[in-house]
Specification:
Blueprint (H helix, E strand, L loop, with lengths): L2 H22 L2 H19 L5 H25 L1 H4 L17 H22 L2 H21 L6 H9 L1 H11 L4 H24 L1 H7 L13 H23 L4 H23 L3 H24 L1 H8 L2
Helix pairs in contact: 2-3, 2-8, 2-13, 3-5, 3-6, 3-8, 5-6, 6-7, 6-8, 7-9, 8-9, 9-11, 9-13, 11-12, 12-13
Length: about 300
């Protein structure tokens, strides 16, 4: 046998392994974690912001988030095999070994946490390690036992902007807490739409998501509406406090009303159309509202003032 087919086969195997490792870190979620951490870090740095340090902080927080995704899939590989939307994930399908995935997740988490401790503030490293532990060791197993897992999971899910802020500022501050609260409230309509769309999958896998529970018809929609209404005043607080100007405030108001309207439609009638609409609006909401923070002239001016 010639060496060329062997080399081509080895190269193909490496490429497939890299693709599978990329799936483990969930690129779309990781991209948002990076963006959220960057926004928080930039606001935490203030007028003395150095773009290089802000980017490094965001990358390190992103590594911790990626590690969380890896360990989540390690722990859920058995239930992933039972759901059509996840059965082809690398661990569920058997393309990667558990050992390799654990080593990969540990490497990412170690680089992120140790990097934050050495390059930034020990508090940011401690918070990042706690975020990883709660997501992997509390939230993920809790999905098998209670629908309150969504509340627990929303805490580490909201941490990226706060982690970025603390890394540069050294301690939590108003912007860090505001962005944390915003992401925390945003997650519930988003997750309820997903859980409703895939409720049969979750039920088959034995995961206790709200729409899967007996007698829970209509509850996901009502909960989504309640949290979207809570999100609206939270998102407007920076404008009320004077931390942001009209550009951010108007954007937050318009986006918040759109999120509330799609949640209200889902609450009024839980259908695949209203759930998918809510999911799409939720996916657009966070990048746009975080972009509004960065492009608001009042925020930019405050960052530039010595």
């Amino acid at each position: 046998m010639s060496r060329k087919p062997l080399a081509a086969g080895a190269a193909g195997a490496r490429a497939r392994t890299l693709d599978d490792l990329l799936v483990l870190v969930r690129p779309r979620i990781s991209a948002f974690v990076l963006f959220a951490a960057f926004t928080g870090a930039l606001l935490g740095a203030g007028p003395e912001a150095e773009l290089g340090r802000v980017l490094v902080a965001a990358l390190l927080v992103g590594l911790v988030g990626a590690s969380s995704s890896v360990f989540n899939q390690v722990l859920e590989r058995d239930t992933d095999r039972l759901m059509p939307r996840t059965w082809n994930r690398p661990l569920a399908a058997g393309r990667l070994s558990v050992r390799d995935a654990v080593l990969f997740g540990a490497l990412l988490g170690t680089l992120g946490v140790v990097g934050l401790a050495l390059a930034f503030q020990p508090l940011s490293a401690l918070l990042a390690l706690s975020t990883l532990a709660v997501y992997a060791l509390v939230y993920t197993p809790l999905k098998r036992y209670t629908s309150l897992n969504t509340v627990v999971g929303a805490v580490p899910g909201a941490m990226p902007p706060l982690l970025g802020f603390v890394a540069l500022a050294g301690r939590p501050g108003p912007w860090g807490w505001l962005l944390f609260a915003l992401v925390f409230a945003w997650q519930f309509p988003h997750f309820f739409a997903i859980a409703w769309l895939y409720r049969e999958d979750y039920r088959r896998a034995g995961l206790r998501m709200l729409p899967c529970l007996p007698g829970a018809e209509g509850l996901a929609g009502r909960q989504a509406l309640a949290y979207s209404l809570l999100l609206l005043p939270i998102s407007l607080l920076p404008g009320v406090r004077g931390d942001a100007g009209p550009v951010y405030t108007v954007a937050a108001l318009v986006l918040g009303l759109a999120y509330a309207a799609s949640s209200a439609a889902f609450a009024w009638r839980e259908t695949r159309t209203t759930a998918r609409t809510l999911l799409l609006v939720s996916l657009a909401y966070l990048p746009l509202v975080f972009s509004a923070v960065l492009f608001d002239p009042a925020v930019s001016q405050a960052l530039l003032q010595p």
